[in-house]
Amino acid sequence: MRAYIIRRLLLVIPTLWLVTVIVFFFIRLVPGDVAEMMVTEQTDITGLTVETFRAELGLDVPAYIQYGRWVGVVRNKDGEYAGLFQGNLGTSLWSRRPVLEQIIPRLPVSFELGLLALVVSQLIALPVGIYSAVRQDTGGDYIGRTLAITCIAVPSFWLGTLIMVYPSIWWQWSPSMLYIAFFDDPLGNLGMFIIPATILGMGMSGTTMRMTRTMMLEVLRSDYIRTAWAKGLRERVVIVRHALKNALIPVITIVGLNVPFLIGGSIILEDIFNLPGMGRLLIFSLNRRDYTVMSGINLLIASFVLLVNLAVDLTYAYLDPRVHYK
Amino acid sequence: MSNTANTLTEAEPKRYPLLVDLVIRLVKEKPLGTVGGVIVLVMFVTGIFADAIAPEGYNEVHPLESLTPPSAQYILGTDSIGRDLLSRIIFGARISMIVGLAGASLCVFVAAIIGTLSGFLAGKFDIIMQRFVDTWMCFPSLFIILTVMSILGRGLPQVILVLGISSGIRSSRVVRSAVIGIKENVYVEAATAIGAPTRRILFRHILPNIMAPIIIIFTITMGGMILMEATISFLGFGIPPPIPSWGGMLSGQARRCMMMAPWLALWPGLALSIAIYGINMLGDAVRDILDPRMRGGLGRYGRAAKRRR
Known about the structure:
In chain A, α7 (107-134) runs parallel beside α10 (186-220). Chain A has helices spanning 2-10, 12-28, 32-41, 50-57, 63-71, 99-103, 107-134, 139-153, 156-171, 186-220, 223-230, 235-257, 259-273, 278-287, 291-319. Helix content of chain A is 73%, strand content 0%. Chain A has 15 helices and no strands. By secondary structure, chain A is mainly alpha-helical. In chain A, 37% of the residues are buried. Chain A folds into two domains: 2-99, no CATH class; 105-288 and 314-319, MetI-like fold (Orthogonal Bundle). By secondary structure, chain B is mostly helical. Chain B has one domain: MetI-like (MetI-like fold, Orthogonal Bundle), CATH 1.10.3720. Chain B contains 14 helices and no strands. In chain B, α5 (85-121) packs parallel to α8 (156-183).
């Protein structure tokens, strides 16, 4: 067990390094013509030429030195180490403010949306999935499975659009578009998050529902469940205490694998419901080609997913003693 | 073999090519999958013959008839500059079809190359490649796709390229594990023993056997592709107007007019949902037929599938 944990932890290092490589060479390596575009668009700054702008962005040195400076292992033009190792994600090309300063206030918003969506998806998926498996091939099972398929097929941006449009036409009611901070008004804040979180959670619940059903079916056929029935245990005890516990282990993996989906989906819902989270910041910086903010967000998100995957793997190893470590 | 009786009753067991066999079994065994297949077929026919089916062109403006509610002339109504919504949805099927087919083909191509090389060569190449794939999967696909699209600029070829490569890298895992499984077979060992060149082993022994996972990846990613294209077009980074994309039709100018013209919010999304529902149903059925193990357990057809083998 300990060897597995150590090996799994060590595996994080090369992956994290590759994350920085991908972010740098796909996004951060600003093409030269962008410098030109930005100079022509920022005409209000006098004396700004393409050369000085490039020098300011550090585009005048070879790519590997740019990478070194960005990570923080090579001195920058001021002779300082100011990169990722120092907790410095760079400065926004447009607002000239540190990237981290812009991202941090948005983290709680995205986090709250994601967490609520996760809770909603489990609240929908687990009961329906279990019921579908226990009452396999009955009417209820078919309804449950249809629900799962519908949740997967209906795009969240369409559902969000419908909720913005139709209730306001029919009942003059529309979701609040003004952001309410949690500490100002917890209930108002939850009321604002619950609709986008439900839509986001529904998208995820489809896959979880199907996985729960499949795993429950498999477990329900195993010998120890037959033994539990033979002992004359009540149905509730057999299902909850004997079957569910074992069926849920792979479901945890699916939940973990769905975290990127959840984060990706939050972009759409933050955009529709006007929530000031990371997704909106990404869209905003993409529209402005703010490469430093774009790379900062992608780097943070990928590192977060990496940590979630690590947590899932370790939980899995802890919960399922059958995981064999080569 | 347990099915000798079966073989005896059929005078000469016909062997169909993989795809024909797949279609026959789909219709025989999977009613829901067949429904999905029909939906996909309808969508493809609509897409291919859009010019003949659509009452108007996708960008034919009637400024005087903007935001007309659904009527006899405009069955689904018109948009803010008076374009017929039905025609745009019909042409939208073509865009979705192109993205789905081209994107899924590229995805399968990338997945086959990475997966086969990684699984077949193994060793250092495999380790390095798998770390790269691991890392790629850390990026939520919508984040990385939007980012790359904003750098490349909007357009149909860019959408296909980005979606195809991105999901190809993701799907390469499935191909890799299939290749590793096939490599263990005695016939590969035999081929190696008689000194067959690597190229021959790859093309004669490995590639024909990964066709099942390839078809599965193709059908399953196609739905994801179409949804992803609609999503990024909705957010304004996909296919530029006036080309009708089901996602793009729900954003931009249409969004500002939805309160006055709620039909603008309804139809493109409905078309998209039905299309994705159909593709998913078809994909699930295809997967069940080709590889019952991938369902993660023996379901309703599990026993039947076993008996057949």
